[in-house]
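To whoever is covering the structure queue this week,

Two jobs came back overnight. Logging them here so there's a record in the thread.

Job A:
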Amino acid sequence: MSKEAPPVAFDPLPSARTADRIVRLLRDQIRSGELSVGARLPSERDLCAQLNVSRLSLREALRVLESNGLVEIRMGSRGGAFVTAPSTQHAGEGITDLLTTAGLSAADVTQARSILELGIVPVVVACADETDLRELQTLCDDAEAARTDGTYTPAMSLDFHLRVAAATHNPAIVMVMDSFRDAILMSMQEAQHEGTQGVAEHREFIEAVQAKDIDRAHRVMADHLRRTADAVGYSC
């Protein structure tokens, strides 16, 4: 059984500090590792006393941290506020909110997506193994079957591109791409074009990766993404 880390002590905050400053303090301690994933925060009463803040401000701060995926509030006798690792779902929801409320367009998303997906091509070519190639081919088979029976959706194309990112075997790349999932899907839905040609391009990309041909793989992916850019009206 692992030894429990010693409790973190907090210095009092001036009374003028509000919930957003409590959020900033706790977030900084989580990011620095002083508050590790799984750590239980002191009780509300103890935190309020240590930080010199009201219970109302503390609860508001904890709700913000919970909505950001940094804290989990558990009920019951063994409950409390626990530090958690934010998931890509939280990041993706934030990006989607930006897309829908802050003026980001499908063209903006497509440009960012092109920079990322073209940038990882050399890594994919160098690192993709037989399992990656086999699973990418299976996704193409599934997409073609769906085109035949009328069940194809843009999400099937997105699954292919996410699996390409996974072929880098770099968890940071996978996390960034996955957090962008909802925004990419929205741009694909606006483009409304990923049909037979899209699947054919996916297969050609796989062939280039299997042949370790970086130039061809980059060209195929660039042409593939350019069609999406044209469909959503993106131009430099």
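Job B:
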Amino acid sequence: MGSGSIRRSAGALFRGVLSASRTKTGTFTDVPTTFCASTASTDPTAPTASAAPAAAGRAARTGLPLRTAAALAASGLLASPLLAGTAHADPKTPAPPAKMSQIGGDRLGTPGVQVAPRPGSPKLPGPDELTARSWIISDAASGKVLAAKNPHWQLAPASTLKMLFADTVLPKFPKDQKHTVKPADLAGMGAGSSLVGIKENLSYTVHDLWLGVFLRSGNDAVHTLSAMNGGTEATVRQMQKHAKELNANDTHVVTPDGYDAPGQVSSAYDLSLFARSGLQNADFREYCSTASAQFPGDKGKGGKRATFGIQNTNRLLSGDYDIKPYPGIAGVKNGSTTNAGSTFTGVAHRGDRKLLVTVMNPEKKEHNEAYREAARLLDWGFAAADKVDPVGRLVGPRSEDDGTGAVSAKGKGKGADKSTQAALNGTGGAGGAWTAVGIASAVLAVLGVVAFAVRRRRPLRGGQSRK
């Protein structure tokens, strides 16, 4: 399989078994939480030394060696940093602001779970099953919000922010354009960043780079594309401008890759807007639904480039040893950092129904917990979609929507929904990713079993790097 070739969950069956490969130092792993000394030392709300005894106890319970636990506890690395400006009494259970944005409807700005069941509606999973600080589930086509919890709470987004990066930059470069990576292109990445493995002085197509962004959440791919786009600062400004155009007013962009930075926040509501916008782009749909691909490696004898396999870190798409691919899943993006915990935005279809779900920072720190909670919400959403009244809606761009959740500024709201529906239906006679994804569900289930047989997860011992 040549450079940049892909094996997709949407429309292509796998022609082999994914090989198990050791994770290289500094590359992405899917461990739900990691610890970053730089974040702990620069975050003004990070725990002080008084948190060390409790941290040491948690470390002991997780099985870390005593010497390692003591060192981590002493530096405050085992206690989760709290977001600046968040009102709370107990540092272990931060509370959402009493008043949040009401874009999309008044109820979406009210703290707590919002749902409006009709008679016969299935019961929403309880707080022991949905532990995320913020979540939202909506109809991807109409934008109707079926249920939500603190959807406008401004939280660290991790690599789910890469959806906004893709919305902003992806349309600018043709897929076959080549770029030779300069050392300056890779400057400024955060310590321990997740990487796809881009090498200086080698050439990559734009198609290669986007596979690196979506599958391996490669910050090196993001920084390379940002360099092509005029640099990191210019890209951040463009992302912020595009967020405003999408009515994503909870979002403040500091880094294009989602790496933790002071003041960088988004919300479950905004992340759903980014996903919904991106899914109207056929290339976006291709990349976010790709389960595995071949990525260009070093030059071998005779100057021929080798390739190596990469697999999507979205575990509802590619599966894992303890979780199966979700039936009908077609993307979108996952993430995890010290400040953000685990974050995930996913889209799935069942029949003619297409649902979007976003989950941010589950309190339950189990392996793959964000995916499990997202799957529970999708299960409920597909069962309840016609049996609940919407509690709000995902608004359209400013050019089409006033963002109030009531009427569109220029009377384009209904037309915009029809346009979105048409785009989400995909392209081509097969209906694109939405209809073809079901074909590969059984294959992905097998991959989950294969992953269990060949993979052995190891805890990440350092670095903030995340999806």
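Note for Job B: Residues 10 and 437 are 4 Å apart (CA to CA).

Please reply-all if you pick these up so we don't duplicate work.
Q.
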